[in-house]
Structures are given as C-alpha cells and as structure tokens.
Here is the input.
Amino acid sequence: MRLRQRFYLVEVLVGLRVTAAHFFVNLGRHTAHYVFGRKDARGAVTVQYPEERRPYSLRLRSLHRLVRREDGSPRCVACMMCETVCPAHCIYIVAAEHPNPEIEKYPARFDIDLGKCVFCGYCVEACPEDAIRMDTGILEFSSYSRRGMIYTKETLLALEPAGPDGTPRSPIPIPADRTP
Amino acid sequence: MTPMLTDLGIAFGRVAFVMLFVLNMGGLLTWVERKQSAVMQDRIGANRASIFGLRLFGLFHPLADALKMLTKEDFLPARADRILFTLAPFVSVLFALVAFAAIPFGDVLQVGGREVPLQAVTLNAGILYVFAMLSLGVYGVMMAGWASANNYALLGGQRAAALMISAEVAIGASIMGVAMVYGSLDMMEIIRGQGRPLFGWLTWIPAWGIVTQPLAFVLFLTAGIAATKRIPFDFPEGESEIIGYFVEYSGMKFGMFMMADFVETVVIAGLTTALFLGGWQVPYLAADGFRFPWGAALTLARPTVVALGVLAFCLKVAMACWFLMLIRWTLPRFRYDQAMRLGWLGLFPLSILNVVVTGVVLLAWRSA
Here is the structure.
C-alpha cells in the first residue's frame, strides 16, 4: 500500500467526495423533478415496478400458450414430443382420436405444471407442428398451492402472443385455487 | 402562579424539548438512513408505506417499522437470564437518551424574571456527565450478550465492550483538548467561548472548536462513530459473521437496540455540534443582534436571538447527522483487529499528543 492509503484518512475523504457528489447531484435532480416538474435527468435508476415496467425482449421465454387452428381447436397433434423432451417432466398429455381423418390425434388433456417448469423452451423447439409457444410475455403467475400452478389446455389455448414491445395482451390467468 | 410551579414548568419544558428533539431525531434518522443511502446510491428508497394513498416520500416507514416490531413475537430463549435479558435493551436505550441532557441547545432565556439556560440539566461538569453516560451505554450491550446464553451474542457483547473502551479513551482525551482551550468543563461555557472571534487578522472567523482543535475534531468524530457501533465500526454486530449481541432479540426489544444506535448517533452529532461547531452560536450574532466584521449591524430582540440560536443548533445537529450517515454509507467495515489497532495505536496516542501540544501552546500564549 502506498503511504497515502496506509494513512487512510485521505482515502476516506476521497471516498466521501464521491458519495457526497452522488448525493447532491441526485438530490438536485429529484428537486428538479418534484418541485419544477422537469424530468429530463433521472435522479435514480430505479424502475418502480409494478407501476413502471421495462419492455421485455421479444426473445423472452414467458408463459406457454397453445396455438389454435382457424376453428379454435388446438394445433397440437398429441405427438408427445414436448412431453418427452421436457427435462422437468412438467407436461402431461392425454391423446385422443381426432374426428377429422386428415388429423391423427388431438390432446384430450394438455397440462403444464408451472411449479416444475424450468422455462428452457425445449418443448417449443421440439414441437413439429409449431403448436406450443412461449411468447405471451406473461411472467407474473403465482398461486397459493401447488395445484394452482397446473395450467390446463383451456387456459393455455385462450392466451394471445405478446405485443410488438413485449407487453402481454392476455390477462394473467387466475389459478384454480384463487377463483372465487 | 406560584414560583414553584413556574420552576417546575420551566424544568419540565427544558427536559421535554430535549427528549422530544432526541426521540424525534432518532426516529427520523431511520427514514434519513433509508432515503439518504438511496439517493447516494442512485436509488429511490423505501416509499411504499402509505396512509390513505398518501406516501410522503416514505415518511410513514418508521411508523410501519414500529407497528411491525410491536406486533412481532417477543421471544425469550429457554436458557436466557430472564431479568437481564429483558433489562438489557432498556439500559441500552436509557443511557443513550439521558446523555443528551447536558448538551445546551440554546443561550440563556429570560422567562418571568428568571434566567433559564436552555439545556435539560445545568451541570458545571457537563462534559464528564455526557462522557460517563456514553460509557455506561455499553452495559446494556454486554448484558444482552451475556444474558442471551448464546455464544455469538456473548462474542458480540465482548467485541462491543472492547470497542467501547478503545473509543471512549480517545473520546475523553480528545475532548480534554477542547476543555483546555475554552478553560471549562461546562458545556455552556465552552459554547460561549466559541462565540468569541479568533485573534489577530483572523478576527472574522469565530473561534469554533473545529478551528482551534482540528485534530481533536477528527479524533473525536472517529471515536464517536465507533461509540455508536455503526458501520465502519459495526463488528459488535458483524452482520455477515456473528450477528452480534442482539441475535436472540426480536420484536420491540430488538427495535430498542436499533433505536439506541440511532439515538447515540444523535448524541454524537449533538456533542460534535456543541464542542466543535459552535453549539447554538450563529456566526456574527451577538447578544443584541448581528455584528458583522465589515461594520454592518442588525439589532434584534433578545428572544429572537435565542430562537435563532436554537434553530442554528438544530440545523447543525441535523447536518452532523447527515455527515455521520454519509460516512456510514461510504466506508466498509473495519476488521476487529484493525479497529483495535486504530483505537489504541492511532486515536489514543494522537489525542494524547493533541493534549500535550495544546497545553504547550496555551502556556506559551498566556505567558507571552
């Protein structure tokens, strides 16, 4: 250590100068903001979530949705690819015969346990039909029970993709244990 | 009104002012701590506690804290000493609170033909009293550490005791320099002495302690911060290693230890103000109004002058608190051995040296 650093007091003053400068600059900006209504310089880097949100990236892997056909039925053909590839074993599919002979099967049940999901996105990559996507932009799903974290086919089908700035267009699904 | 009632009223008023000032400042400091640290670190700080949607920049957070602490479980460890364990936080807070009593917050005020010195208790050895009360504060901490029946708490209490001894010695020795310069142990006299101008061509500077005793100021401030047990001297707490003397405490008892720390900060700020920043002195304000060195003058009534003094004292204490907070949120923590070395090999010899040099200079000055 240099002598000046060993003496410490000078270094303390240097440090105090830095923090005091931050204090007074930020205080001036806050004053400009609150008293004079000028918001050109931010006094803090804080994003006041949830009133204020940063835009999500479009690549963000958020809550899954099941893509619909034109008639509203799921595009999924219950091939079990996603269920097989899922490292967290959080997808549960029950396949059933599709009435249309052109389409082999459809999912009678398609449950995702979001309490287990690790949001790796393998299910989206594995899907040969582009039937499952993670582009809803919804991140705030929570529940008071494990059961409430299981999202069913109907819930997942109703979801819309996020807008161009990444903000969700569907309301956050209400888990089963919170429905009145 | 009988004279006795008047006397009682005056005594009550003096105590009430100091008590309310210290307690409110202590409570406010929890808000200042949050907000000042936030502004220093480019953040906003706690602002969510609201009453009917009114947030007031987070001013309700101290209230919310108090509510939380009061409603939390008051835990008593199975093998703890019930009486001492309960007594410790009260002892801690009590000595922190009473220490402020000897610090004058204003000049002498005339009330109903009486001379009322504006301090809670008039003591002619006020410095010694404050010094003693600050030292006694460590009993609460040691008691807490010992009574908890927890090795980490004991370790914290022992660390606090070691820190307090090394800090108190430096505080006492650095205050001695001030007492020598102003020739009194009475706080009122010391502050009055700080109102006089400096000598020679420096008459435009008031003889505040920070000017006459700069080394003592630095030493006192360092040791004073150590006495508050806050960062950078918070190893009795040692959040990341031993949690410290209050591991076993919860609810409002823990809150009282927190409060003691904040009140001690106010006391140190008050002492710094009284001894080094001129106390209630306003520069160029004499007993009958402003007398500027360039000849201008502004005559003021006596009560106005006293009120200005009280205001100046409050402002100075607030500024000193701000500075203590600035230090607390800038410096990292000293290690135990580093703080001991700083106390015994740094502050203590330097403060003794300060006393010796001050004595020699004063002798030479008076014989010249």
User: Anything to note?
Assistant: Helices of chain A lie at 3-7, 9-36, 81-85, 122-126, 153-157. Residues 9-36 of chain A form the longest helix (28 residues).
